[in-house]
Structures are given as structure tokens and as C-alpha cells.
Specification:
- This protein has 231 residues and is mostly helical.
- It has one domain: Glycerol uptake facilitator protein, CATH 1.20.1080.
- It contains nine helices and no strands.
- The longest helix is centred in the first third of the chain and has 31 residues, at 4-34.
Length: 231
């Protein structure tokens, strides 16, 4: 059994890796484009977010559950798999990890590069309303949380304890392939908060809280109600 500080530290490092490598990929893509080298492209950026989560969930999931996302933590809270106090502790650790990663990127990436992309802070596509943005973010967070419950919570699942890290990371990757051009593909309030704070870019920031949290609540409740075997 791991202590609360150990669990919070695991959540901190997991979220740090998501923002550092994912938003770092956004900055690297901007740098490559600015220097005429093409860029990473949407798939490269999607993998920049998905692969760190696949790795860190596999590495730290046994300590904290590998949430690294307030939307997933609230799914555990609404299904009474986490107390209110523990959920708030996870949120604090996740937001701290995302913020620390964003400020680290700000310190090491040349200012013209990170300013051009606001340190990877997600943004709505031109013409997209906030309501539509919340819907897109909510859908992505729904499927992410649904996969977490199916592979890391449901002990009857064939994937339980085996490929859950890969499944969760791949879900983030495919979500970004679709949602990235529309909303930035955040699906995670901590991933949005850190870069927004470090770059002072709060435009439409509420979209990246309301949508993912609603999706996490709905996915957790549906999976818990419809699929988990009650003992």
C-alpha cells in the first residue's frame, strides 16, 4: 500500500511528462516549421501526448492508478472509487505537474517559439463555438475515461493489468488525431491549465474544464452502472 504523498508524487510526475513531452512536441513542431524543416505534423504531436501517458501509466499506475487527468479522477469520484479528499489531492498534484512542466518548457524553449504556440495551450479552431468545443472535449474525455475504466478498473476485462497503459495512450493519440485541429485535443484540465498559466493565454479556458469533466463523469457513471460486476 502506497502513502498519499507517494500517490501524489506519482500523479505529479505523470502529468508533468504529459505536458512536457506533449506540449514540447508542439513547440518542436513550431521550431521545425520556423526553420524550414517541415515539422512533426499532427501524428507526431498526437504521439507526443499519447506515448508519455502509455509509458507513465505502465510505470506508475500501480502506485496511484495513473490518472494524470482531473477528468479521470472525477470519474473515480462520481463512482465512489475515490473520496472527495483524495480526488482533490490528485487534482492538486496534477495541476502542479502540468504547471511545472509548462514553466520548464518556457525556460528552455526560445521565447519566439513558445510564444507563437502559447506553450502548446489548446485553442479552438476558427469558427468553432465554445459550446461545440465543450462537446468535442467532452467526447474525447468520455472515451478516454471509458477506456481507463475498461482496462484499469474492470478486473473482468481481458486487458486488465496487461495492456492498459498502451490502450490509454493510444486512446489519447487517436483523440488528438480527430480533435487536435478542432480544439487542440486537450481532454485534460491540467494539460490545459499549465500552459495557459505559463503563457498567460486564458482564451476559452473554461472549455477545457467543463467539457472534459462532464465527459469523465458520464463515462465513469455509465461504465460503473452498465458493465462493472457488483460484489
Amino acid at each position: 500500500m502506497y502513502s498519499k504523498p507517494q500517490k501524489m508524487l506519482a500523479e505529479f510526475f505523470g502529468t508533468f511528462s504529459l505536458v512536457f513531452f506533449g506540449c514540447g512536441a508542439v513547440c518542436a513542431d513550431q521550431f521545425l516549421q520556423a526553420s524550414g524543416q517541415g515539422g512533426l505534423g499532427l501524428l507526431g504531436i498526437a504521439l507526443g501526448f499519447g506515448l508519455p501517458i502509455a509509458i507513465m501509466v505502465s510505470a506508475l499506475g500501480h502506485i496511484s492508478g495513473g490518472h494524470f487527468n482531473p477528468a479521470i479522477s472525477i470519474g473515480f469520484w462520481v463512482t465512489r472509487k475515490a473520496t472527495t479528499f483524495d480526488t482533490l489531492l490528485y487534482w492538486i498534484a496534477q495541476l502542479a505537474g502540468g504547471t511545472a512542466a509548462a514553466y520548464t518548457l518556457r525556460a528552455i524553449v526560445p521565447e519566439p517559439i513558445w510564444r507563437a504556440v502559447h506553450l502548446g495551450a489548446p485553442a479552438l479552431a476558427p469558427g468553432m463555438t465554445r459550446a461545440t468545443g465543450m462537446l468535442v472535449e467532452g467526447l474525447m474525455a468520455f472515451f478516454l475515461t471509458f477506456v481507463v475504466f475498461a482496462t484499469a478498473v474492470d478486473t473482468d476485462s481481458a486487458a486488465y493489468g496487461k495492456v492498459f497503459g498502451f490502450a490509454i495512450g493510444l486512446t489519447i493519440t487517436i483523440n488528438i488525431l480527430v480533435g487536435g485541429p478542432l480544439t487542440g485535443g486537450s481532454m485534460n484540465p491540467a494539460r490545459a491549465f499549465g500552459p495557459a498559466l505559463a503563457s498567460h493565454d486564458w482564451l476559452n479556458h473554461g472549455v477545457y474544464w467543463v467539457g472534459p469533466l462532464a465527459g469523465g463523469v458520464l463515462a465513469g457513471w455509465i461504465y460503473d452502472t452498465a458493465f462493472l460486476r457488483k460484489t
